Amino acid sequence: MQRLGIRSSFIQAAFISTALSFIPFFGLSQVWQETFNGLANGTTVDNGATKWTTTAPPGAAIFSKQTPAAGYELFMINDTGPTEGVWSSEVVNISAATEIAVEVTLYSYFTFSTDYVRCYYKLNSGPEIQFGELLGSNGLQIASAASAIVSGSTLQVIIRTRETTAGTNSGYPRALGFDDVSMSSLRILYSRQTGNWTDPNTWSITGFGGATCSCTPDEDSRVIIGNARTVTINAAANTAGINVQNTGILRYGSNYVLTMERGGTINISAGGIISMNTYTGSSILYGAYAYSVVVNGTLSTGVINASPGSNISFSGNGSVVLGDDFRISSGSGRTITLDVGGFTVTDQLNFITANTALINKRTLTAGSMVVNAGINGNQFTNVSTGIINIGAITLNNGDFTLDNNGTITQTGNFNTVDAGSFFNNLNSSTWNFSGGGTNGRLFCNVGTNLFNYNAAGAQTLFVPTGGYSNLTLSGSGLKTLGGALDVNGNLIITGTAQLDVSATPFAVTLAGNWSVTSSNTDPFVQRTGSVTFDGTLAQLISTAPLGTESFYNLIINKASLNAQLSASDVVVANILTLTAGGLDLIGRTLTISNGATTAIGRTSGFIKSESTTAPYGQVRWTIGTTPGSHIFPFGKTSAAADYIPFTFNITTAGAPAAGSVSVMTYATPANNMPYPTGVSNVNNAAGVDKSASVADRFWFITLNSYITNPIATVTFVATSGEVGTISALKAQRWNSVSSKWDVPLASQTNPTLYSVTVPAVNTFSPWALSGNNVILPIDLLYFKASLNIDEVEIDWSSAQELNSSFYTVEKTTDFEHFQEVGRLEGAGTTKESHVYHAVDTNPIVGKSYYRLKQTDFDGAVTYFKPVMIDYDGLQQKKLEVYPVPGNGSELTIEIKGVAPNERFHLIILNMQGQQVYEHYVAGNDGGKIVQKLFFANRLQSGVYLVKVGSFLSLNKRIVVE
Q1: How is domain 878-960 classified at the CATH fold level?
Q2: Which CATH number fits domain 780-871: 2.102.10.10, 3.40.920.10, 3.40.1190.10, 2.60.40.10?
Q3: What confidence score (pLDDT) does residue 3 get?
Q4: What is the domain partition of the chain in residue ranges?
Q5: CB-CB contact of 926 with 894 (8 Å)
Q6: How many Cα atoms sit within 13 Å of 778 on the Cβ side?
Q7: Structure pTM?
Q8: Distance of alpha carbon 456 from its chain centroid, rounded?
Q9: In sequence order, which residues have a C-beta less than 8 Å from that of residue 22 and are 6 or more positions away?
Q10: What is the per-residue pLDDT across 142-168, written as a single tens digit (0 to 9) for each?
Q11: Which residues of 143-164 are buried (b: 16+ CB within 10 A; e: fewer)?
């Protein structure tokens, strides 16, 4: 790019004329050319030897041939408005040429960046293909920036342009222009032998086996290297294109420069090689055109220089390796695209001039990235398929933008990043960072992405504007906050890393999951900081393998859904603040270490206990010796009607200070099932189920580490739906010693229709709220079933019975259809414990459920909680011998689980291994063997081994007295 800083119109005109004279014009065999020389100003159509036409936009001030400066003629575009103007060459026959170089010189003079002149070609009447572009800028630009090499039958050039910048600069119109539209034939050179680039005997124009052309490559020729030939660059070299075929090698003989001209292509086939040959000072220089580099083999050179005006596209499945730098100085409006299998820059990815776009689509590895001092406006884009592995990134205070849509792994530091730069970790991207330095221009809040601090050591976290999307702290070492941490997604601590809020301390705000898998013994150093969960989706708190996460201050402020203790208990050392939303315990324990009554604060939030099976979700509050009203703010949802706080108001303190109170609660269906652990029913004194008179909720209150229990006034609250029409609520405690519901304590009151306050409580265990003057006794200690071979044994025990007529054991698979297994008489009315036993000799294969039904003399029926059996249906063989000990004269053996009529050899051995008895036995139709053995010679006293069958392998030791 050239910028015009002198305002004298005379000097400007002279500069324009002089600058344009430097645009190269190569002496190729011209097929078609338009220089606009000799045409009258204002010409819009030429029907002469080189025909062309235009489609001018409506109201264009200038869209014609002009002479803006003495001695120079071109096609000028000025004040076209929003509509494109189009210039078109005639359709030119190019069939006689092997390849055609098409070129256009482009011009811009103090125009807007939205203005443009774009060049296209149509090959064989096909679609328009862009091969050059110049965007407007505040200055003078003149460049041969439009060039392409094509082959075919016909060729047409089309130029589309728009210029909207009104006015003049130093008396000259702010305008775009173009000149020297040319189509020229190229020469093709083949490697006829192994040799040097400058040796005429190396090349032929007729093929690999042709005679020498007595020529060498230059900017008017393209070379093809193959046929197992090796060509050595032994001097500075120029070419309009290189094709290295399979078995072909182009290598450097020293630190020479290979200059690519006219937009020529480098094409390396699989098996083809361009090699720097240890010369890291070797280089490829690209001029001011658009270039294509197709690598399916290997390309290695010391340096690639992208000169001002160059567009370069790398593609293919091979590899590019630079022994030194990739120097990017393409300039405004230019793009370099990396879409090759692997692109490695050993040293620096170096941005030398401003406003170049670099796009990475696959894997780029670079030692470091450097932006030269004072260079602004470069854009580096890593697309979704892109992978960048890079060391340090040094901007030297240049304005730079890096957009990551794929994966970046950065092992070095950020250096001299200024306020005009942007490092954007965009949607679905990942940035792995093991470096350091400072970067106040990191942005990670677009879409869902991940930033990962993965150093094997200490790192200080950046504070990006808008916070992080997802943040991972991995590797090892202490990851310290450099400011308040805001994570819009998940926070993950893994490896052996630690997160330290720092000595300030800084607050952490999280909208996603808290996931800690670090094996560090203290993965989160909370100090006296605060952690806030404020996401709109469900948030999980998970800490493994430790299983417990500690916070100093924990704040729940969720507009919707809950925070959940997914795989972690939580300890809050100071204050739990429930601003809004729920903290769902999901069977875990929340410990409040601060005994003050203010240790749990609430605006509209709540704690959700609600675990219906052990282990129950509980709040453990280390109240110790602190008196006063401690409110456990339980709730089911955020609705006010679902807020059900439990109040533990200590009137007489307990001891010691380490003592804590654990409380949990859960709702049930109308039948009050499942019962809390140890509770077997909600029957009245007559044993009749009275779940209709019991609120659909249970409470556990447990004292921990107290030597002297506190005395408290406790208040239970249920929802209106859980109480229903029950009146005169009373709280009753389950007595685990007597296995019954205690009679309600005296002096209970009802602050509301759905709550009960009980004074002077100092003994705790499960509680329920009953009403309608129903008292809940217990009459069953246990009910269980167990699988014994191919039978199910059912056992139960009553603590007391009232008018108990009989028990019925039933089984089912679907809880709709029940089969009777057996009946046993009850004990009538008794306060003594009774044990009962029944056997199901024909169990159901698969999962089945057994329940106990108790029937009173008056016909009242009570059902007890069912138990499950999983029977695989496979009979197991079992040997029984009796009596033991025996008298030595006779013995009975019983074998279960054999096939009908299956025969087995039975022997009895003494302890010396001598056989003292032998017999054959066979299974009956029921799959059993029952055989009584008589011994003619009485067995002497001692220990014997009864063994049945070598394959059956059943053994049993017996004793003879």
Answers
A1: Immunoglobulin-like (2.60.40)
A2: 2.60.40.10
A3: 26
A4: 9-185, 631-770, 780-871, 878-960
A5: no
A6: 23
A7: 0.71
A8: 22
A9: none
A10: 766 678 889 999 999 999 999 998 888
A11: bbbbbbbbebeebbbbbbbbbb
